[in-house]
Amino acid sequence: MQNFLAKSSGDTAKLVAQAKALCGTDDKLWLLPPLVDLCAIPYGTLANAFASESHAARQNGFLHLVVPPDSPEVLDNCSAIQELQSKARAQGVFVHALGAMTAELAGTAPADMLALQQAGAIAVSNARADMANDDVLLRALEYAANFAIPVFFYPNESALAKAGVAHDGFIATYQGLPAIASVAETAAIAKQLLLIKHTNVRAHFSQLSCQNSVQLIREAKTEGLNVTCDVAMHQLHLTENALIGFDTNAYVLPPLRSEQDRQALLAGLQDGTIDAICSHHTPLSLRDKFAPFAEAIPGISAFDTFMALGCKLVADGVLSAEQLVAKIATNPASIAGIDALWQSTGGAIVVDPNKTWQVTKDTLLSQGKNTPFLGERLQGKVVAVFFD
Q1: What is the rounded distance in angstroms from the CA atom of residue 105 to the CA atom of residue 113?
Q2: What's this model's pTM, rounded to 2 decimal places?
Q3: What string of DSSP letters covers 322-342?
């Protein structure tokens, strides 16, 4: 069994012994620390979501989840954050909330970010909600910088994205879908980077989707800006072609983009520009997806397929197993500012990178069956978890 627990604390020897006792000593198995997800939206409108999605998270290796400030309600007050964290902890997972950067996410005035941080928010964000103007954004970033509060960006210039639902490429044109040009993302990043440089705030960019975005972050890091970024796992494996036939299970925002963009994301992952991989897990009901494409709800149920797709990155030579662990556990813990908690809680998971399984509604632990991988055979699975 290959041990990748070096950077997690707790009783490592005990965990290794437990894993070997349960799973054997096969040197093809991996012993990993608990996963840290920098963007999950698990607690939406599904019934009993706290129970079902927390269970799905744990069984797929996730012990720590970072949730945006609109999941499942606007997190612009202390009680909302504390209640969310308490309910999730009762189900065996640690939820790390992003507080709302502006009151009610309305984009008109900064929220009481210091109070939100003191209530347990690890950072602030306005998610994909618009700011009324750039002055509000500047004042919010100045506030955050003054109190050393990190900021998470979900870059999207809505005036350019409009009501788009698909990448501005051949598939959108062929199927007559409203398009979102990649410049809607990169224009937002360019502006936000200028304001980050001006305020010196620490910032994280979540769910990059296109080539120019990777290049902008690469240049910002070279310049010395205090920025990090992640990419959703599905963006590393799928392109706009997944939308052929109007498959709403492949409808996600930011949209699946071109093969050229996907290759740029992989390159950014390899050279360290992209620090982490998130799930962007968004479980939805059949009703949410059973609609004309542009009227469906965007999102992919991702907890169950996450590890298999990570194993594919290793099998394809994109990352080594050690690098994968850094992208899905070590680096996310650092970015979220939860290193001490992540290490002190300890725990471990056992992964069989060679285990083949078929994605069906029955094999998905999540209530959300909305995945474009339905019917496919994937390789790689979490086969045991050791969490308190």
Answers
A1: 12
A2: 0.96
A3: HHHHIIIIIHHHHHHT-HHHH
Q: Which two tokens stand for residue 227?
A: 């920025």
328 CB contacts (<8 Å, ≥6 apart)? 35, 36, 276, 277, 306, 310
Residue 172 makes CB contacts below 8 A (sequence gap 6+) with 164, 166, 178, 179, 240, 243
Q: Which stretches of the chain are assigned E, i.e. beta strand?
A: 2-3, 30-32, 35-37, 62-67, 94-100, 123-125, 151-153, 166-167, 179-180, 203-205, 227-232, 276-278, 348-358, 377-386
Predicted confidence (pLDDT) per residue in 75-113, tens digit: 999 999 999 999 999 999 999 999 999 999 999 999 999
Quote the pLDDT of residue 8: 47
The CATH topology of domain 35-346 is TIM Barrel (3.20.20)
The backbone torsions φ and ψ at residue 234, rounded to the nearest 5 degrees and listed phi first, read: -65, -25
8 Å CB contact between 277 and 191: no
> Nearest to residue 313, comparing CAs of 350, 349, 267?
267
Residue with tokens 């970015």: 335
For 194, how many CA atoms within 13 A lie in the half-sphere containing its CB?
8
CA distance 163 to 154: 17
| Burial class of residue 115 in the structure, from the number of CB atoms within 10 Å of its CB (0-12 exposed, 13-18 middle, 19+ buried) | middle
Contacts of 169 (CB under 8 A, 6+ apart): 179, 240, 257, 258
Longest dimension (CA), the chain: 59
Between the two ends of the chain, the Cα-to-Cα distance in Å is: 22
